[in-house]
Write a structure and sequence with these properties.
- The complex is a heterodimer of chains A (328) and B (654).
- Chain A has 328 residues and is mainly α.
- Chain A has a domain of 175 residues: MetI-like (MetI-like fold).
- The longest helix of chain A has 38 residues.
- Chain B is an alpha+beta fold.
- Chain B contains 23 helices and 25 strands.
- In chain B, strands 19-18-20-17-21 form a five-stranded mixed beta sheet, with helices on both faces. Chain B has a four-stranded mixed beta sheet with strand order 2-14-12-11.
- Classes of the chains: A mainly alpha (328), B alpha+beta (654).
- At the A-B interface, α2, α3, α5, α7 and α14 of A face α10, β14, α11 and α20 of B.
């Protein structure tokens, strides 16, 4: 086990280097650069950039140099000094910008995960055990609805109803007076009061698919001989379900941890944008749109690193939970 | 610049208006004395500040105001103190949204009508007869927002040490140069500063009144000099401590520049603005909050210190739709940016009652809503030959059914138009504006036949003499100008009727710019500017703007590089370049108008751009209880609305 982990960790290094290069190239691929996008954005409000300034900006950010040089400058800064550079747009250190948003992102993602699992697991098990009952049909109906409705649309509709019909404040994670106040009990209460809207919106689609997965897995397991054996031995129905088929059916949930970590950064971008949530997603999109090289590059790198770590963690967890799986 | 309305010198006008204002103050005070106790007892400063003064935490008002503060005549009525103005910003590249509400404190400013330059930071000025020397008189006792005095030294520092520093600005900002040479700024006294130019620069005051002309009042010497190597020997250590690569980066991060986000990212930087930063505009910010500047140097006609409104709260929305939602649900007090798209108007009108707001008309400063630039310097010689032929362009223009476009796309809110200063502007040019705007497909067909495009292909489209189809693509950015896409779709149909095949090439904006910069486009479209400010944005009148005059980018490169790069333009263009230089050097407005008329004559004869209709007015919203907002105002970058309408005199009636 230990050897497995070490080997996997070693493999991450070349993967990350390859990924960093790819990320850099991909971000540079669209036509134009940060300065073009900057000029175009200002021009959209009929605002002009002084001609001299544009050329100067390009030189200052090193955008007039060949891509290889730009890449080497960037990557050597990261490797040698741990310096991710300055965001072109904000002139602030990239690492500062990213970490600032990670805490709330973590809270949101974890709450969503808990909500999703909390709803999906029991309903999935119920659906499987009471197959083709009215309850199953109702659950199936709603889970297909949840799958079919795009979450950003749900967000917009909810916001419209809340804002225009009910006159409530829905955007963001805090009310007006708590936005920049220091953390306090009241602020946490305020956060919780705002958090449920995005959590529900995000959970709806995730729940739906998980219910289907759980139901299918359970149906596979329920007819297996070991279940019959256990039942024959007189185990109560509830204890039996929890102890055997549910445990086996959980495997896919553990596999999802692999993409759970990168989702911290890149998940639910559209919903976060619509709801104006101060999480990492909108900033990632923004940096890509404005071709803010260093900020976008750091994000992509972070996502890749999290994917690698996530898949390692889920492999290890799977082996621990399911003795049938061997790492070697 | 409709400054030719009164054929007098701009500075003369400015002083005249000021004298009138002062007269008004006197009258108002006199009238108030016996009558209204209320007006007499009106507080001279905000209660919050009065409290601080009483507690001894702030100097008394008289010490905070200059000896002669700028007197602002409220648009409708005197206001009352208090309230917070809520606006919306976008999460990226929206720093100018802040500039447009607070950052308009240059040496001079535009008047409300966008016709002449008025005193602002400078209380008056003198210009010599050749327009090479400008002496500005500052206000004695004026203070930065941290209470430190603002003097001529600050202006000299901002220009001589900062704007002219080649490490900070590779080339001196163009507003401060004439014919490639920068101004020399000298201190005359503590309250007088002189700008000397090597040659005549009659447009200097107008340029100073635009946002890009704000350098003289941008950098507080006592604060910003600590980030300047000339004044701080230990700067290298500070640069290192801040983890920056060099001192200009640190300087920019701390002191900003006119239009970069970091101008609004440092709460410690002293400014001359009516409101100062509390919560800055940084990468992770979800809102920007500004509070009143206790040292703001403007008063209303009763002598009460401005601004009336305590605080600005600008929430950052990532998405324009959620900004719209905030607007119609009444959580925005004033907004035009981002929501002023034509397709939003029905929604905004419908929800006026519910949201408790009214619409504010924004007069378009552009001339043309959808200018079509055929690339007359196309890389393909055959295409170039076709586009460069004036009769070909005439035929295309006659082939457009403008009435149909105006009725369908612009809901009847416009009129057929080519280009040139807008109707009502003193420089309005009938021929330039209206030639070839009638719909005459028969004549267009005849002209195209005569030009050698009479053969038709199997699909009924015309063929060029070399057998290729008469076909070109028009670049347009759908995310920026959805209406232009609709317009072009109709134009495509009209042109198909005269046998010309066109493709509406909807592309992403960075690609649009890259294609333009590389001269790779067949044709492109953009709103044609210069309707209210022909002197400040003449890109459609001759090949002036390397990213804007899209009918001949290489000519513009020739122009801006003084003949070193690009391609040599034809004679008519060269004459216009010369005429524009003459006009810019002419202080006398009537004479300048005469020169510009000559220029417009040449533009009309050359007929380089094909226009569709007059730029359509847009609108913003203001909450019903927000007073002193003009019913209509220009919508321009040179007049960075709403700042010249003076938000410091807006107030909440309840």
């Amino acid at each position: 086990m230990l050897r497995f982990i070490v080997v996997r960790l070693m493999w991450m290094i070349p993967s990350l280097i390859a990924v960093s290069f790819l990320a850099f190239v991909l971000i540079q691929l669209p036509p134009g650069d940060f300065v073009t996008t900057y000029i175009a954005t200002l021009a959209a409000s009929n605002e002009l950039v002084d001609q001299n300034t544009a050329a100067e900006l390009r030189a200052r950010f090193g955008l007039d140099q060949p891509m290889m040089i730009q890449y080497l400058k960037w990557i050597s800064g990261i490797l040698l000094e741990g310096n991710f550079g300055l965001s072109f747009e904000w002139q602030q250190p990239v690492s500062e910008l990213i970490w600032e948003r990670m805490a709330l992102t973590l809270v949101l993602t974890l709450s969503t995960l808990l909500a999703t699992w909390g709803i999906a697991l029991p309903i999935g098990v119920f659906s499987a055990v009471k197959k083709y009952s009215i309850g199953d049909y109702v659950a199936t109906f709603f889970s297909f609805l949840g799958l079919a409705i795009p979450s950003f649309l749900l967000a917009l509709v909810l916001m419209y109803v809340a804002a225009v019909k009910l006159g409530q404040d829905v955007g963001g994670l805090f009310s007006e007076k708590f936005v920049n106040s220091p953390w306090s009990f009241d602020k946490i209460l305020d956060l919780v009061a705002h958090l449920w809207v995005p959590v529900i919106i995000l959970a709806v689609s995730g729940t739906a698919s998980l219910i289907r997965v759980m139901r299918a897995n359970m149906l596979d397991e329920l007819n297996k001989p070991y279940v019959t054996t256990a039942r024959a031995k007189g185990l109560s129905e509830f204890a039996l379900l929890i102890k055997y088929p549910v445990r086996v059916a959980l495997n896919p949930f553990i596999s999802t941890i692999a993409w759970l970590l990168p989702n911290l950064v890149s998940g639910s971008i559209i919903v976060a944008i619509v709801l104006s949530l101060p999480t990492a997603g909108p900033m990632l999109l923004q940096s890509l749109m404005s071709q803010d090289m260093y900020l976008a590059g750091a994000f992509v790198l972070l996502i890749c690193a999290l994917t690698l770590v996530g898949s390692l963690v889920s492999d290890v967890l799977l082996a621990l939970v399911d003795p049938r799986i061997r790492l070697e | 610049m409709t400054d030719s309305e009164q054929p007098t010198h701009v500075h003369g006008e400015g002083v005249g208006r000021r004298a009138m204002l002062q007269g008004f103050v006197g009258a108002a005070t006199l009238a108030a004395m016996p009558g209204s106790v209320l007006a007499q007892g009106a507080p001279k400063e905000a209660p919050e500040l009065a409290k601080l003064v009483a507690e001894g935490k702030l100097p008394a008002l008289a010490q905070r105001l200059p000896a002669s503060p700028l007197v602002v005549k409220p648009i409708d009525s005197l206001g009352r103190y208090g309230g917070a103005l809520r606006r919306g910003l976008r999460g990226s590249a929206d720093h100018n949204g802040i500039l447009r509400i607070v950052g308009n404190q240059g040496l001079v400013k535009w008047n409300l009508a966008f016709t002449q330059v008025e005193p602002c930071v400078a209380e008056r000025w003198e210009v010599n007869s050749t327009a090479t020397e400008f002496t500005f008189h500052l206000r004695a006792g004026m203070k930065w927002s941290d209470g430190k005095p603002f003097t001529a030294d600050d202006v000299v520092f901002a220009i001589e040490d900062c704007a002219k520093n080649s490490e900070l600005y590779k080339s001196v900002p163009s507003q401060l140069t004439i014919a490639g040479k920068p101004a020399v700024v000298t201190k005359v006294s503590d309250t007088a500063v002189k700008f000397t130019f090597p040659s005549s620069y009659a447009m200097f005051l107008e340029n100073l009144a635009t946002p890009l002309g704000q350098h003289p009042t941008l950098f507080a010497k006592h604060y910003c000099s600590q980030f300047h190597p000339k004044y701080n020997q230990n700067l290298a250590a500070a640069v290192k401590a801040a983890n920056m690569s060099d001192w200009p980066t640190l300087f920019r991060a701390k002191c900003g520049d006119i239009e970069i986000p970091s101008r609004w990212g440092n709460v410690d930087k002293p400014t001359l603005d009516p409101w100062i930063l509390v919560e800055p505009y940084t990468g992770g910010a979800t809102r920007v909050v500004m509070t009143r500047n206790p040292y703001f140097w403007q008063v209303d006609t009763q002598g009460s210190q401005l601004p009336y409104i305590n605080q600005l709260t600008m929430n950052i929305s990532q998405d324009v739709e959620s900004l719209m939602l905030d607007t119609i649900s009444g959580r925005i007090d004033m907004q035009d940016r981002h929501i002023d798209a034509l397709q939003n108007k029905p929604t905004l009108s419908q929800n006026m009652q519910k949201g408790g707001y009214r619409l504010v008309e924004l007069v378009a400063s552009s001339a043309q809503q959808c200018q079509i630039y055929l690339n007359m310097t196309h890389k393909d010689p055959k295409m170039r030959e076709m586009f460069a032929n004036k009769e070909f362009r005439e035929a295309l223009s006659l082939g457009i059914d403008r009435k149909e476009i105006i009725d369908i796309v612009y809901l009847g809110q416009s009129e057929a138009y080519q280009t040139g200063p807008r109707p009502g502007h003193p420089w309005y040019h009938e021929k330039l504006a209206r030639q070839f705007t009638q719909h005459d497909p028969k004549k267009a067909n005849e002209m195209l036949d005569k030009l050698g495009y009479s053969r038709r292909g199997s699909d009924g489209m015309r063929l060029r003499p070399d057998g290729q189809k008469v076909f070109f693509a028009v670049d347009v950015i759908p995310t920026l100008y959805p209406d232009a896409v609709d317009t072009l779709e109709l134009v495509k149909r009209h042109w198909a009727a005269i046998g010309v095949d066109m493709k509406v090439n909807t592309i992403e904006r960075a690609l649009y710019y890259t294609r333009g910069d590389n001269n790779d486009h067949d044709a492109a479209t953009w709103p044609g500017p210069g309707g209210l400010d022909p002197m400040l944005d003449p890109r459609d009148y001759f090949a002036q703007h390397p990213q804007g005059s899209r009918y001949a980018i290489p000519w513009t490169q020739w122009y801006v590089s003084n003949g070193k790069d690009g391609q040599e333009p034809p004679e008519s263009q060269k004459k216009r370049m010369k005429l524009f230089a003459d006009a810019s050097a002419t202080a006398d407005i009537a004479k300048r108008g005469a020169i510009m008329k000559e220029l417009f004559d040449l533009t009309a004869d050359a007929f380089e751009t094909i226009g569709v209709c007059l730029a359509v007015n847009t609108f913003g919203i203001a909450k019903n209880n927000l007073k002193n907002v003009p019913v209509k105002m220009p919508n321009a970058w040179s007049w960075p609305n709403p700042a010249p309408a003076l938000p410091q005199q807006f107030y909440f009636s309840s």
